[in-house]
Specification:
Blueprint (H helix, E strand, L loop, with lengths): L1 H19 L10 H5 L10 H22 L5 E3 L12 E5 L6 E5 L3 H15 L6 E5 L15 E6 L6 E6 L2 H10 L7 E3 L10 H15 L2 H6 L7
Parallel strand pairs: 1-7
Antiparallel strand pairs: 2-3, 4-5, 5-6
Helix pairs in contact: 3-6, 5-6
């Protein structure tokens, strides 16, 4: 009896820890949408307010990066030896459940290696962005090219627009979207830094702005560069 009580106590403590830790707990489908609805007294939840604040922080950060690119420093992590990778990697489609085997070092393989991180990060962005990853599934795919297709609800006017990641350069840039803005120092990979790179800061501003705001709103927010 004492042993059963002890096990039950440990299980309850573990459940409470997971529930209270956003980095561990996974959000159930539909929770993000539910958390932004109005309460019975007509007041919006804190999640909607937090997202609005995060959008303004993002806008301010992008403007600062545009106007003062020299304030951003790129640095390098310590070099380390990579383990020999496997030849293939498995991908399970969340839509149909089909398992597809991709070459580990292919473009599709690179996307599969990052897909879980992208799925977890999207709900935490200050704007609503959904992902279509059907191109990675042998059953659902409608074309031969590996790509991730995103649909954004503009953070200013709510207009929907789509964009995609289809090559290694785009995939590397995708990490910029998930940084916590404002940023002052960015990991630029092994073997470089610390250094200043205004051109790269410009590329960051253009990419992140283009993923979160429609062209019209980018101009209105003065986040665009003169051609």
């Amino acid at each position: 009896m004492k042993k059963s009580s002890k096990i039950a106590g440990i299980a309850m403590a573990t459940l409470m820890t997971v529930s209270n830790n956003p980095t561990i707990a996974e959000e159930a489908p539909g929770c993000a949408a539910c958390s932004e609805t109005s309460s019975s007294n007509g007041e919006t939840t804190s999640v909607a307010g937090d997202r609005s604040l995060a959008r303004q922080k993002l806008i301010d950060a992008l403007k600062s990066m545009k106007n003062q690119p020299e304030q951003i420093e790129f640095h390098s992590a310590m070099c380390y030896k990579m383990a020999f990778p496997p030849a293939t990697i498995d991908y399970t489609c969340p839509g149909c459940g089909e398992n597809t085997v991709h070459q580990y070092n292919s473009m599709a393989g690179a996307m599969v290696r990052r897909i879980s991180t992208v799925r977890r990060a999207l709900p935490n962005l200050p704007v609503k962005i959904t992902l279509d990853e059907t191109a990675l599934c042998s059953k659902c795919s409608k074309n031969e090219q590996a790509e991730l297709v995103f649909t954004t609800e503009c953070g200013k006017c709510s207009t929907s627009f789509s964009w995609k990641t289809s090559d290694g350069n785009d995939l590397d840039k995708l990490g910029w979207l998930f940084l916590e803005y404002p940023v002052k120092s960015i990991d630029d990979g092994p073997g470089r830094g610390p250094l200043k790179n205004p051109d790269k800061v410009r590329a960051m501003v253009e990419f992140v702005s283009g993923c979160t705001f429609c062209p019209k709103c980018i101009e209105e927010l003065q986040l665009n560069y003169e051609k």
